[in-house]
Write a structure and sequence with these properties.
The protein is of the alpha/beta class. The chain is 29% helix and 20% strand. The strands form five sheets. It has an eight-stranded parallel β-sheet. An eight-stranded mixed β-sheet has the order 11-10-12-13-19-18-17-15, sandwiched between helices. It binds beta-D-galactopyranose. The site of beta-D-galactopyranose has 8 residues, from loops.
Length: 685
């Protein structure tokens, strides 16, 4: 039984670095934190040298004092294990712990995350520092939980040290047993890549035109993910053996990492780091960009990793390193808006990154709530406002995000799509198009990783599932989706579905492979739309298309193979004009849809109509496009909270049919109501 339940109230906090500041500032910092309504700090995730200044010599004094004082102010502490930044003495003495580029160049001391997960000595020294810390802090009354490392696979997510090559060989031996199987899985007969001794086998290495064997590249990503998970699990096993009453989490959502399996095997819950102003550097393309609102998509990914989650770092100022990621200051109100974006999407805690801007180092431009000068400022005021509001939101704790539609994803296709130029770019466009189309119609969406242990019951709560481009589609997943349809669900597939097996080979069978029967289609012919070509449009069966729908990027030319398969739309253009582009087949009480192209906003809108998807507040609230709707519901009572988030710099008008209480102000709202720029309303349903 834990003394502290990470989900029993909404927590507000900050990332704090006592080692960066004169000790005389700490008390004032803690006092002001509690005045602002902050109750949690995360500390120590980069401080290894402070704990172990020399190999095997340990010192806890500085953090003992920092944490004891935090405790006196009633602050709870999440303790970071400091393994993202090995000490200089360590990398100097044991250079084999360094990560290496594919070209063979070792990363050196001077930044962070320059280590690899497989060097035995790094594992040993990591295990020792974690054990020392867990032993020392397991009984500290302020320490409520642990963050393992920091942002696993951030900065770099490929690893080519000698230790990694060696560990990869062992990983392959246990996956394939012998070289014959390995050669078969990697299609090694092609271009004479056949291996005759395990010592010849490596992670991908430099090749002409940087084109590695695609099957090897896919296994490499699986291996990297497994390496990261086993490293995290090693740490979490140690912590749990000393501190079963403190929670274990880690933060961030990064590539080549099966975060779902990591969370299941090693964490109590997952944490995400949310920096919505990256939208200023990497905006989404096309009309009506989502910009910072797109972070709802990433929060949905985090929510699928663990339904209860924390935002361990929430952007609280302008951003950037000295050399990259330059981004503007959040406008007044935006920091608060993003805090509620996290909460609306299901987070139970939000910690601002960081309490105060670092006056030195690479991150001098990643601003915290407090500026270098440490004088009052608008961001501190905004944090205080949120702190006061959180005190009124007690009843929201424990409620969960609600949606009737889910977007399906899986790691195999994500990783395979990085190399596969016929696949990866499609997924990005299709996912964003669906997200946008649903967002602007105020239809909340879940994202579900369907590659793991998902069961039928997990899917039956959704009215529709969208699986845009499941190139690698196992028979198990195909069967699961067939059952879902038979039970009354609706599933939508896009082009390029079901044409690869688990190794990434294209088996000799008609497309779309394991879902051909479910959808009642065969793919007769297919083509990429060349960069100089215009995609054909799609003609709906009724002939009435109010807006042109372009069959983007790739076209599967379909034929129907079942009497009950219905052609809903045909291609209007190119050499396959008149051939089916969208087919629906009933099964049990549901329907499977196959669409032959990548999705864009217009085709997603068309399908939203066909699937009869509607906003859950239709008829109760009228919302303009700039306002996001998120719903959290209490599982026990069914009580609902409607979060209305205005992402625009303009005031927005909404219409409320009945009367509803706004939770932060306790105002009764009905009729025409204005939401100020970047403002938020939380209505009790
Ligand atoms: C996160 C990281 C923090 C800090 C922040 C701002 O990715 O965990 O340590 O670097 O970004 O750059």
């Amino acid at each position: 039984m834990r003394d502290f339940e990470p989900q029993d109230q909404l927590y507000l906090g900050a990332c704090y670095y006592p080692e960066h500041w004169p000790e005389k500032l700490w008390e004032d910092d803690y006092r002001r934190m509690t005045d602002l309504g902050l109750s949690v700090i995360r500390v120590a995730e980069f401080a290894w040298t402070i704990f172990e200044p020399q190999e095997g010599i340990f010192s806890f004094d500085l953090f003992d004092r920092a944490i004891d004082l935090a405790h006196r102010y009633g602050l709870k502490v999440v303790f970071g294990t400091p393994t993202a930044t090995p000490p200089a003495w360590l990398t100097h003495k044991y250079p084999e712990v360094l990560n290496v580029t594919r070209d063979g160049v070792a990363y050196q001391h001077g930044q962070r995350r320059h280590y690899n997960y497989n060097a035995p000595i790094y594992r040993e020294l990591s295990a020792r520092i974690v054990r020392k810390l867990a032993e020392h802090y397991s009984d500290h009354p302020a320490v409520v939980g642990w963050q393992i490392d920091n942002e696993i696979n951030c900065e770099v997510n490929v690893f080519y040290s000698q230790a990694d090559h060696a560990a990869f060989r062992e990983w392959l031996k246990s996956r394939y047993g012998n070289l014959e199987q390995l050669n078969a899985a990697w299609g090694a007969v092609f271009w004479n890549q056949t291996y005759t001794d395990w010592e010849q086998v490596y992670l991908t290495r430099p090749t002409p035109s940087q084109s590695p064997n695609p099957h090897q590249a896919l296994d490499e990503k699986r291996f990297i993910s497994d390496s990261a998970i086993s490293y995290v699990k090693m740490q979490s096993d140690i912590i749990r053996s000393f501190a079963p009453h403190q929670f274990v989490t880690t933060n961030g959502l990064f590539g080549h990492l099966d975060s779902h399996r990591m969370a299941k095997e090693a964490l109590d819950f997952f944490s995400y780091d949310s920096y919505p102003n990256f939208a200023a550097i990497y905006p989404d393309e096309g009309p009506d960009p989502l910009l910072d609102r797109r972070w709802g998509f990433y929060l949905s990914l985090a929510r699928d990793v663990s339904r209860r989650f924390w935002v361990m770092e929430q952007q609280s100022g302008p951003g950037g390193w000295v050399n990259r990621m330059a981004s503007p200051s959040p406008k007044p109100g935006q920091m608060r808006l993003w805090t509620y974006q996290s909460i609306a999407h299901g987070a139970d805690a939000v910690l601002y990154f960081r309490w105060r801007t670092a006056p030195m180092g690479t991150e001098i431009y990643w601003h915290g709530i407090n500026d270098y000068h440490n004088q009052p400022n608008r961001r501190v005021d905004e944090a205080g406002r949120v702190g006061r509001e959180f005190a009124k939101l007690a009843e929201v704790a424990g409620s969960q995000f609600q949606a009737d539609v889910a977007l399906l994803r899986d790691y195999d296709n994500e990783w395979d799509g990085e190399l596969d130029k016929w696949l990866g770019p499609l997924t990005k466009q299709s996912e964003l198009s669906w997200y946008k189309a649903l967002q602007y119609r105020h239809i909340p969406l879940e994202i579900v990783n369907v590659g793991g242990g998902v069961q039928l019951d997990d899917l039956l709560r959704f009215k529709a599932l969208i699986y845009p481009h499941a190139a690698i589609l196992s028979d198990r997943t195909a069967e699961l989706l067939s059952q879902y349809v038979r039970h009354g669900g609706q599933v939508v597939f896009g082009c390029r579905s079901g044409y690869k097996d688990e190794s990434g080979h294209c088996p000799m069978r008609p497309l779309p492979g394991p879902i051909a029967d479910l959808c009642g289609v065969n793919v007769d012919d297919f083509t990429l739309i060349g960069t100089q070509e215009t995609a054909p449009t799609v003609l709906l069966g009724s002939g009435a298309v109010s807006e042109a729908i372009f069959a983007d990027r790739f076209n599967d030319v379909l034929t129907i193979t079942a009497d009950d398969a219905q052609i809903l739309a045909t291609y209007d253009g190119s050499y396959y004009a008149g051939k089916p582009a969208l087919v629906r087949r009933p099964s049990g009480s549901g329907f499977a849809y196959y669409y032959g192209a990548a999705f864009n906003r217009e085709s997603a809108e068309m399908l939203i109509e066909l699937l009869d998807l509607r906003s859950p507040v239709q008829g109760i609230l009228t919302l303009p496009p700039a306002v996001e709707l998120c719903i959290r519901r209490q599982p026990a009572t069914g009580e609902e909270y409607w979060f209305l988030l205005n992402y625009s710099a303009e005031e927005q008008k909404i219409e409320i049919v009945s009367r509803h209480t706004e939770l932060m102000t306790l105002r009764e709202l009905s009729g025409s109501v204005a939401i100020a720029p970047f403002d938020v309303l939380i209505l009790k349903a």
